[in-house]
Structure formats: C-alpha cells, structure tokens
Amino acid sequence: MAELAADKHVKYIISVEKRKDSFENVVMEHLRMNGVYWGLTTLDLLGKLDAVDSQEVIQWIMECQHESGGFAGNVGHDPHILYTLSAVQVLALFDKLNVLDFDKVANYIAGLQNDDGSFSGDVWGEVDTRFSYIAICCLSLLHCLDKINVEKAVNYIVSCKNVDGGFGCTPGGESHAGQIFCCVGALALTGSLHHVDKDLLGWWLCERQVKSGGLNGRPEKLPDVCYSWWVLSSLIMIDRVHWINKDKLVKFILNCQDIENGGISDRPDDAVDIFHTYFGVAGLSLLEYQGLKAIDPAYALPVDVVNRIFIGR
Amino acid sequence: MDSDKDEGETVLPSQRPDFADVIPIPQDDGPNPVVPIAYKQDFVEIMNYFRALYLKDERSPRALQLTHQAILLNPGNYTVWHFRRLILEALNLDLLEELDIVEKIAKNNTKNYQIWHHRRWVAEKLGNDATARELQFTRKILSLDAKNYHAWSHRQWVLQALGGWEDELDYCKQLLEEDAFNNSAWNQRYFVITRSPLLGGLKAMRNSEVNYTIEAILANPENESPWRYLRGLYKGDSESLVNDPQVPSVCLKVLSVKDNPVFALSMLLDLLCHGFRANQEFRDLVAGLSPSVPDEPDSDLAKTICSKLEQLDALRANYWRWRKSSLPRAIQDSKN
Fold first, then answer.
1. B101 touches B1 (CB < 8 A)
2. CB A84 within 8 A of CB A122
3. Beta bridge partners of residue B203, listed in sequence order
4. Residues of A in contact with B31 (CB under 8 A)
C-alpha cells in the first residue's frame, strides 16, 4: 500500500502559492483566506508550519479585517462570516489570537444572528446552517459564546434535522454530510449533542462508505476525499467512528495522492487541489495515521492548538 | 441593460472611451504574499477598473456592465455581486431582465453559492411575479443535474415564500420515474407531504404514500432512499410502523426474491426491536439466506439477522455487531 507522501505535500502547498499563470489562483482570489487556512492547517498537521513566515501571514490577515469587525477573503473585499472563521483559525494556529479585538470580532458575528436563531453569512442575509457552525465555532474560540442567543441557535439547527437523522442547510433541506458536520459540530460545541439521534445518524453516516472504501456525501453520489473529513469528524463527535471500515478509507485517501508532485485530489487520478489536500490529510489525522498531529473534529484545528486556547500551556 | 449583453461582455474597459476617466487600482496582496496570486491579463484589467469604481461607490450603468464582465470571469467573487446589488437598487432597473442575466451565468455555474443567493435576492424583490419563473428555472437546472443542492434549496424557498405547491408532488413523481435512486427527489417528496398547505399533512398522506413507497422498494430493493422514506412516514410512531401489515409484508416479499436483502433485513430488525412478532415464514426465509451463520440458534431471529448482515454488508460489520450486542432485552428474553 502507498504511504503518505508527506514531504511532497508540504512542497505542493508551498508551491501553490508561487505558481504563476494558474487559473486556479485567479478564481481563488476572493477566498484566499480559506486557502490560507486549508494550506497552513495541513502544514501544521504535517509538522511543518514553520515553513511559512508567520509575521507576513498575520499582517496580511489583519489587513483583511473590515471596520465592522468581520474579515474578508482578501484585502479590499467585503467581510463575510466564512472568512472571519478562517482568519481566527489561522491566528490560532500561530498562537496569535491576542492581536484580535475579541469584542469587535464577536460583535460582528453576533450581529449576524437572526430572530429565529439562524445566522446570515453577511449583511446580504443568506441563511445556512454552515453559518451557524461558523458563528458558534468562532465565538467559542474567542470565549464569547455569551454574545449570542445559544438556545435559539441550537433550536434552529434542530429544526433542520431530517427523519434520516441527518441535517440540511435550512429546515426541510436534504441531509448532506457537509451540513451534518456543521450541525453536529455546532451542537457539540454548545454541549447540545443530546439533540442528535446518534444511532440513526451514525448508521446514515456509515452508509456513506462505498465499495472503494471512500465516502460520499449523500446516497448514490460518488465518493470524494472531502467527505473523509465531513463524515469522519461527525462520526467521531457522536462516538460512532468504529462503524466504518477505517483501513479501506485510509487506502482510498492514499490512492488520491499525486505521489510525484504532491497534493491530494477528490478521487483517484483526478487533479489535486489545496482544498482536497487539506481534507485528505485531516481525514488521515482523524484516522490516527502515523506521523500526523491529531486534529479536533469540532474546531477543525490541531488538538494542541485547541488545548492551548482552552487549557493553557 | 441590453448593451450589457452586447459590448459589455467583450470590450475591455481600457478600450472604451466612457472609461477614460477611471484610474484602475491593482489588488493589494500585501508585501510578499503567502499565496501570491497569478492573474490572467483580461481579468486583471477588469478587476482593476472594478476596484476603482467600487472604491468610488459609483452606482452607474457602466459600473453595472463592469460587474457583469467581472462575474463572467469569476462568478465566485462575492464582493462584485454585492456591488451589483447596490447598483441595481440605486438605478431601480427592471429586475426581470436581471433574472435573464443570472440565468445565462447560472447555466455554466450551477454550483456557485453567489449566483443562487443573488437569484433569491432578485426573486424576493419581484415577489409573486417570480413564482412561476423560479419554479421553471429550478426545473431547468435540475434537468441537467437532478441532485443540485442549490437548486433544491432555492426551490424549497420559492415554495415556502412565494407558493406554487400545486404540481410539486407530481414533479417529485416525475423525477423518481426518471431515477428512483434520486435521494433529493425523495427528500422533496417528504418536504411536500409534510409542509404543503394543500395536502393534509403526514398522517393524511400516509396510506397513499406507503403504497407508493412499497412499489418503489419492490422495483429496487437495494435502493436506500425509499426504505428511509418508509421509516419517515411513521416518524415518532413506531407502534403504527409495527402494526401496519404492509411493512413486514414488503420485507417478506423482498426476502423471498433473495437478491439484495440488506435493507429488508435491516427493516425487519427494526420491526423486531419495536416489538414485532415474526412468524415461521420469516424465520425460514432468513435462515435460507446465504451465507449461513450456524452459530445462532434458529429461534433467535434478531441475532441471526445481525449475523447475516455482518456478512452481507461487511463494510459495516461493526455496526451490525453493535446492533446485535444492543438488542432490546425483551427480544433476547422472548427469543423472538
């Protein structure tokens, strides 16, 4: 069986940043903050976060902060809750949360909560359980959960629960592994996992494993490395991860590597990208693959980073 | 906005006399950026002009055209969409035309969050004038990809906010005729029977829905979706599930065929856990399924089912082992 080409992946992540002429980079301009989170979290899991200049990254992140307190995907763009969480997570990686005005960031997020407990992504009002997770995760990292109505936030998430035990993006929306991660994560971070039917959801989640060993996100869809994260982290949070075949999943992820040039793709033999490289490595970390730092399934940050925030050094 | 479609899409701002007064502003990626971005030339130019007008907050027809050009090059750039909405509001333009533009862009970008969010913003402003159009539009997108999550979300929003429930159950039926494995269509069906103001709710719909679902199961017993849908029809009412003779009967029929028994066995297991008493016919059918599992006594049906599932559904062997170890005491005692 192939092994994790850790050094190649480190090189790949650093090279993505330098590749001129790549259309991928043009399209990524507005979500560079997410790209930085994916890339740097992967480097940290691989034990190579020191390959980047933290000062430069932090300076750039702070230039992306808007007067409202939220962060944009890049300098000069509008703030959005998606990039605000990535910014906070990356600062946490570098143990530099102290550069933030916690109240300012927290007030921005709290201002996005709606009357029904849901969260909008930004001032334009798109609502999605993804944003509930982001708000709760971000506020938890900042020790500011008291800024929002947690009970209402939880009730909204519960209203998105389906009869198959899963969760959708809004009430009645189809269960989807990505949304399930967000909802279970938000419930875990607020101590509300009793709202989850763990046995039913656990069965639905382990039904996502297909013959190749990979996981899909919904019934009858193709497997994709990104679900190694969404499905696995959810299963771990509800304590049911032993219901899937771990060895087969490890093999599937390793088969999606570009052994020569580094990087991981969605499925074997597809083109690699930074997003799937993160999800592949994070998935392997959840599977306790040798040589990787452990990642926290709810905060999506290395466990040592989370411990530093909540337990101190 | 007609010019939007003609020259707007092709002529770069540096070639247009009406942009001569604008000084383009390049993206500031910081001193020695972590992820230096390589930009394509046209894209760079359009974005530089966009930044100039955006920073001036110029809500003009030419700015509107420029946002269109920028969106065509990168529909994911949410700031461009934001600015476009501000301009649309300021200029008070015909929003039906905006739907045309979005439709063109959406055809090649059906999984882009920004497009769908923009579309909803426009539809919300148009209100009931948009209902039929939005239902038609989502149908079109779903005809290309029947599981497109964004299209389904949009459609559910349209139904709840603007109405148009009349044909929805038929639409689900049509999609399931095209692909019985389409879980999104099953989900929509559940959405309709539980939320449509025109139907009587879950209990009123249960009988006809059970019949429909059983037919779907018999046609494709390996299809996960209708089995879950069937359970959903008895949500929070396991007593009715156990007491409805149609449910054990569909298990029996599927098990008699012997192909794809996994979901039928799983449903039978659930029934037993909820107090269903299986007769000899069930026992014989289960015992007859290969592979044989000699270690369980014939009388212990629930355990035998779990052992069979461990083998038949080996990927999830641990799940079935757990089911076996956590069978309700009542079943274990009565040797059901």
1. yes
2. no
3. none
4. 56, 59
